[in-house]
Design brief:
Blueprint (H helix, E strand, L loop, with lengths): L19 E5 L6 H24 L3 E4 L15 H8 L8 E5 L6 H9 L4 E6 L6 H15 L4 E5 L5 H13 L9 E3 L7 H16 L1 E6 L13 H5 L3 E6 L1 H10 L2 H14 L2 E2 L11 H21 L3 E4 L2 H4 L7 H7 L30 H16 L6 E12 L2 E7 L16 E2 L21 E11 L2 E11 L4 H9 L7 E6 L4 H7 L4 E7 L2 H17 L3 E5 L5
Parallel strand pairs: 1-2, 1-3, 3-4, 4-5, 7-8, 7-10, 9-13, 15-18
Antiparallel strand pairs: 6-18, 11-12, 11-17, 12-16, 14-15, 14-17, 15-16
Length: 545
C-alpha cells in the first residue's frame, strides 16, 4: 500500500533585479524606540540610497512601513524571517543602521543568505547606529557569516564612496587592521608570572558567573557557549529575573532607605523631581536600592564571582532601571549590605563585578580584571562602555565611551563628583537614576573578549582619558545621552577607522591604573591571564609588551 503525503513544494525564490541592492532595517523590540527613531532612519536611508545611485545602482527596500506601528523597522525575529523570504538569495543586501538594533531580528535571514552582505551606519551620536553596527558585525562574526561594514556621516565623503564602490564591484571591503598583532611569547617578569598563576588558579578552582536571564537586546555575540566558557574555568549559574523581583520585595524599607542615605551622605547628587513619568523620584531610587541589595544576597546564595542583570525586556516593565545598582556593585566603596540574618557583610571592601546587559564577554573580562588589579593592589573598579561615537579635538581623536548609567563612582573621581538623573522614558518607562559623571583623566587598559572562528579571543590595548573643557563635554553629552556617564578616551596607536574595522562588540571594557607604567604592567598581567585561560590574545596599537 502506498501512502500519499502532503509534501510541501520547494520555495521559489524571487530573481534579483539588475544592479539593485536590497535594503533591510533591523530595529528595536520596543515600540517607543522604533517610532521615536524612525525619522532618523528614514533620513539615513535616503543618504545611502543617494550614494548607491551615484554609482549607478538602485536600492530596493525589502519591507514596507507598517501602517499600524508607523515605522519601517524589522522588530522581531519572526518578522525578519518573513522579510528575507522575499529577498533574492544571491542579491547584494545592505543592513542600514541609524539606530540601536536587535541583531537576532536579521540573523536568521543573513545566515541563510548567499549574496554579499554590507552593514552601514551613520557617524552620529544622537542615535546609536554605530553601536548597532558593532553589535551586528560581532554577531555575524560569531556566526561565521561573511560580511562587510562601512560608516560615514552622510555618505558623500570620498573615503566612504570609494569603499562602497569596492563592495559593489567585489562583494567585500578590506579595511586596515594593521594595528592588531598576536600576543606571541610572554616576556619573563613578575607580571607574566602573576597572570599565568591566576589563570592556573581559575582553571583549578573554577569561578561562577550569575546570569539573570541569558541573552539581552538581541546580542547573540554576548552569549558564550558553556563548553567554550568552561574550558577557561568559568561556569554559569542561570538565574531568573523573576527571582530578583521576588527578592527585592523581601528587602525591608529601612534597608533601602539606609542605602540611599549612605549615597546622599557620600555626596551623590540626585536630580529629584515629582512627576514619576518623566522625572526622578525617591520611590524609583528606593526600588533601585532594593535591587542592589537583592542582587548581592542572591549572589551570596549561589556563591557567584560576578553577576549580570539583563533588565531591558521584562524588568523594564516591572521596576526602575538597574543601572544605579550596577554601578554600585562595581565599586569598592558602596553602601554596606549584610546577609539576610545580619551576621555577615557581603563582599566587604570589594566589588562584586557586574556585567551589564548580561554580556558574557564582559563577564570574563571583568572577572579577569578584578583578579589581576586586586592582586596588583590597584583599584579593581571596572565597567563596560558602548563605543558610542567620537570626533577630533585639539589634534587627537577623542572617543565618546558611554553606557547607560552604570559606571563605578571611582571612575568619576568619587560619589561627590557623580550625579544621578532619570533615565529616558523612551527606554525606561519605570524610571530610575543613573550613576553618571565625567570619567577622570588617567591611564586605562581597554579590552574585549569575543567569539571568532569557533574560539575565544581577546583584544587588549592602551589608552588615556583626557579632560575636555566643560562646554565640549556638555556638547558631546547633548549629542548623545546627557543622563549617562561619559569617558573621553584617546586610544594609543589605533585610529578611528581601525577600531571600527576590528572591534567585535558594541562594548569595550575599561579599567584605570595609577600611571602609564602601572597600566603597562597591568596589561601584561592581564594578557598573561587571558592567554593562560586558553583565550587567543591580540595586542592592539601601541602596547609596551
Amino acid at each position: 500500500m502506498t501512502t500519499a503525503y502532503a509534501i510541501p513544494e520547494r520555495r521559489a525564490w524571487p530573481e534579483a533585479a539588475p544592479r539593485t541592492v536590497y535594503a533591510v532595517a533591523s530595529g528595536d523590540l520596543r515600540l517607543a524606540a522604533n517610532t521615536t527613531c524612525w525619522p532618523a532612519q528614514q533620513a539615513f536611508e535616503a543618504q545611502v540610497r543617494a550614494a548607491l545611485e551615484s554609482h549607478g545602482w538602485a536600492m530596493q527596500r525589502a519591507h514596507d512601513v507598517d501602517p499600524e506601528t508607523g515605522h519601517g523597522f524589522i522588530d522581531s525575529q519572526a518578522r525578519g524571517i518573513e522579510v528575507f523570504r522575499s529577498v533574492p538569495k544571491e542579491a547584494p543586501v545592505v543592513v542600514v543602521d541609524a539606530v540601536w538594533q536587535y541583531s537576532h531580528h536579521v540573523l536568521a535571514g543573513l545566515r541563510a543568505h548567499r549574496g554579499p552582505i554590507l552593514i552601514v551606519a551613520n557617524w552620529a551620536g544622537e542615535f546609536p547606529g554605530l553601536v548597532g553596527l558593532l553589535n551586528l558585525t560581532a554577531s555575524l562574526t560569531k556566526a561565521g557569516i561573511a560580511h562587510s561594514i562601512l560608516w560615514s556621516e552622510d555618505f558623500t565623503d570620498e573615503w566612504a564612496l570609494g569603499k562602497l564602490r569596492e563592495w559593489l564591484e567585489t562583494g567585500s571591503i578590506e579595511h586596515d587592521t594593521s594595528h592588531v598583532r598576536p600576543l606571541g611569547a610572554l616576556p619573563d617578569g613578575p607580571e607574566a608570572e602573576l597572570g599565568t598563576a591566576l589563570a592556573e588558579q581559575l582553571r583549578d578552582d573554577h569561578a561562577v558567573i550569575g546570569i539573570f536571564d541569558e541573552g539581552c537586546m538581541g546580542m547573540y555575540n554576548a552569549i558564550i557557549d558553556d563548553e567554550m566558557l568552561n574550558a577557561t574555568g568559568i561556569y554559569k549559574e542561570r538565574l531568573s529575573q523573576s527571582a530578583l523581583l521576588a527578592e527585592m520585595d523581601r528587602v525591608p524599607a529601612g534597608e533601602a532607605e539606609a542605602a540611599l542615605g549612605w549615597l546622599e551622605d557620600a555626596g551623590l547628587r540626585f536630580h529629584w523631581g515629582t512627576d514619576d513619568a518623566t522625572e526622578l523620584t525617591r520611590a524609583q531610587v528606593l526600588s533601585q536600592m532594593r535591587m542592589y541589595i537583592a542582587a548581592l544576597r542572591i549572589g551570596d546564595d549561589y556563591g557567584v564571582d560576578a553577576i549580570g542583570i539583563q533588565y531591558q525586556q521584562g524588568l523594564k516593565d516591572q521596576c526602575a532601571a538597574s543601572d544605579l545598582a550596577e554601578g554600585l556593585l562595581n565599586n569598592v566603596e558602596r553602601p554596606p549590605v549584610r546577609s539576610r540574618d545580619g551576621a555577615r557583610e557581603l563582599w566587604p571592601g570589594a566589588p562584586l563585578p557586574h556585567f551589564n546587559e548580561v554580556d558574557e564577554g564582559v563577564a570574563v573580562d571583568a572577572l579577569v580584571t578584578n583578579r589581576v588589579w586586586t592582586a596588583m593592589g590597584f583599584d579593581p573598579a571596572t565597567t563596560l562602555h558602548d563605543i558610542r561615537w567620537g570626533e577630533e579635538y585639539d589634534g587627537d581623536f577623542v572617543w565618546v565611551f558611554e553606557i547607560s548609567g552604570s559606571v563605578p563612582a571611582s571612575h568619576n573621581g568619587g560619589y561627590d563628583k557623580s550625579y544621578s538623573m532619570r533615565q529616558v522614558p523612551m527606554f525606561f518607562p519605570k524610571g530610575g537614576g543613573t550613576l553618571a559623571g565625567v570619567s577622570k583623566p588617567g591611564e586605562i587598559v581597554w579590552s574585549r573578549v569575543f567569539v571568532m572562528d569557533g574560539a575565544l579571543h581577546a583584544d587588549v590595548g592602551r589608552a588615556h582619558v583626557v579632560e575636555l573643557p566643560e562646554e565640549e563635554t556638555r556638547r558631546r553629552l547633548e549629542s548623545t545621552d546627557p543622563q549617562w556617564p561619559i569617558m573621553h578616551a584617546v586610544l594609543h596607536g589605533v585610529s578611528r577607522d581601525q577600531l571600527m574595522a576590528r572591534h567585535k562588540s558594541n562594548h569595550v571594557q575599561v579599567a584605570y591604573a595609577p600611571d602609564a607604567e602601572a597600566a603597562d604592567r597591568a596589561l601584561t598581567a592581564k594578557a598573561a591571564m587571558l592567554s593562560g585561560m586558553g583565550i587567543q590574545v591580540h595586542l592592539c596599537g601601541d602596547v609596551a609588551l
